[in-house]
Amino acid sequence: MSKEIEKASVDRRTFMKGIAAGLAGAVLPGGIAEAFDWDAFLQKHFKEMTDEEIKKVIERLEREAAFDWKKKIHIAATKALPNVKFGYGLDLSRCIGCRKCVHACVEENNQSRTPQVQWITVLRFKKGEKWIDLENSEKYYNPKEVPEKDFFYMPVQCQQCENPPCVKVCPTKATWKEPDGIVVVDYNWCIGCRYCMAACPYGARRFNWAKPSIPTQDLNPETHYLGNRPRYKGVVEKCTFCIQRTRTGKYPACVEICPVGARKFGNLLDPQSEIRYLIENKRVFRLKEDLNTEPKFYYFFAT
Amino acid sequence: MQGKCKVFLDIIVAALFSFLAFLPGAGAEEKPAEALKDNIPKFFAPKPPSSENFPCSKCHQFRATNKTKRKLHEYHTAVELKHAEEQRWCYDCHEGNKLRLQNGQLINFDKSYQLCGQCHGTIFRDWKAGLHGKRTGSWDGEKLYRLCVSCHDPHKPKYRPIEPKQQPLKPADIK
Description:
By secondary structure, chain A is an alpha+beta fold. Helix content of chain A is 27%, strand content 16%. Chain A contains ten helices and twelve strands. The radius of gyration of chain A is 24 Å and the shape is elongated. In chain B, the strands form two sheets. A three-stranded antiparallel β-sheet of chain B has the order 1-2-3. Chain B has a two-stranded antiparallel ribbon with strand order 4-5. The longest helix of chain B is centred in the first third of the chain and has 21 residues, at 2-22. Chain A binds chain B through residues 91, 96-100, 102-103, 115-116, 118, 121, 139-147, 246, 249-251, 255-256, 258-261, 264-267, 270, 273-274, 277-278, 281-282, 302-303, and chain B through 122, 126, 129-141, 146, 151, 159, 161-170, 174.
């Protein structure tokens, strides 16, 4: 009996040979081998790459993007500036809910037009009711003119937490907090599991259900690897405080567009910065502070 | 007698304090105010919106000054005063081709924030610190400020409502 079984079963050597042959067949389908990009498949984690390796990866990505989007795109990998930690302030007593920030952000950061992806959500609250009643807030308000009587508005975007829950849950470490405090996503490492979206208490992350569609002339060619470079289908994206702008000293696009100057931005480590002035002199609060996420996004009321 | 003594003492104390205040370097709390003065931004955008009537002397040199508060029918009919209009008339802020501060000092239109700052001190302080109003440029470098009148009509300063941008798609509308 045992002899028969031995005869029928494959011995170890044959089994291993079979596996090797099978793998080779599956992975290297002869003629169309170049359809599979080994460089992309073997790309190391962004934080483990040397500057030289990052340069090579970016060259490949720029090539791919030029092909995919029919436009020459520049991808920067500007590093965080020393002694900088970005903080954001938003004056709720000024915001008029015009949504200019939402659309400026879409244009600056190459968000998909169809399906619609927007990093900023402006919530409308009724004055005098339960305060910041998120569940009864309205984001589809559409009056002829804003601000409306008896309402106030609160734009919500990524709060750039110091203790970001989204980073903790990422199974591939595709999202992390940079030294200047910006929480970033590597779209080449994101596997689209959306755990981070479930973990984020602010609903700040967005998922690309389809390949983003952006009219070629509207595509912003000045991009950053960790920011507004064109995304793929099936990856998560979010506000990066306009990393491509702020790391070169500029204000984020939402700050520049705000018609009432409700949005403030600066270096939390610089005692002379406007963000420090507002934290020290105004009544500030952070959204869902009780969750211990330590957001670097300060809502305040200027008088 | 005691009451008289107290008054006398009060006068002496007051005189001493006012003397101290004039001593150079005595007012330690004066310094931050000086520092803030230096904070007046260097870069403005855009230029103050100038009226097509400027300079005022174009017409006013031929007209007698009439400080009576009245409804204007001939000129400046577009100016609707809704800014403490009960207490105010043209000549409280305008004089010649200049703006007039409460102390009688005349300033140019590009320094109009001094005029606004007379009443709106807290806002003026916040504006100098970069908090009130819009600024563009770089967060760690040169910034462009706006004058008060770039956003507020000085005669009717309440911010005008604007049309909001398109609302996000409702889930039901996503095809």
